[in-house]
Amino acid sequence: MLKSILHKGFTSILALLVLFSTVSFTIEKHFCGDVLVDVSVFAEAEKCAMEALELLQKKTCCKDELNVVKGQDELSVTSFDDLDLEQQQFLYAFTHSYVFGFESLVKHKIPHKNYTPPKLVTDIQVLDQVFII
């Protein structure tokens, strides 16, 4: 019971670790002067009202800042041919012994499987006064 719960928990943690190590996202921040106006993770950050006025005046006090958190792009996948000879031999021997190492037991025929003993009418030991001491 405890072993299966630990196994399921450990595999879930490893799956989440692989998922979160490959996810990439961008954090966008909009500053108006030195004041942080908006922060957005998945969508574009909202602009302040000063930005519309700056387009007319061509003077800029607003700035956008992008922080990109990159996940892992490639997961290393190795094939059987990439392994050196000793590793290939070990892997082959391990799989061969695991697949062919377990033999099923021969099913023995039990001749008295369906035999029911006769019902005792009297206790013979008490009748003959024979007791094991």
TrEMBL record:
Domain of life, source organism: Bacteria
Name the UniProt record assigns to this protein: Uncharacterized protein
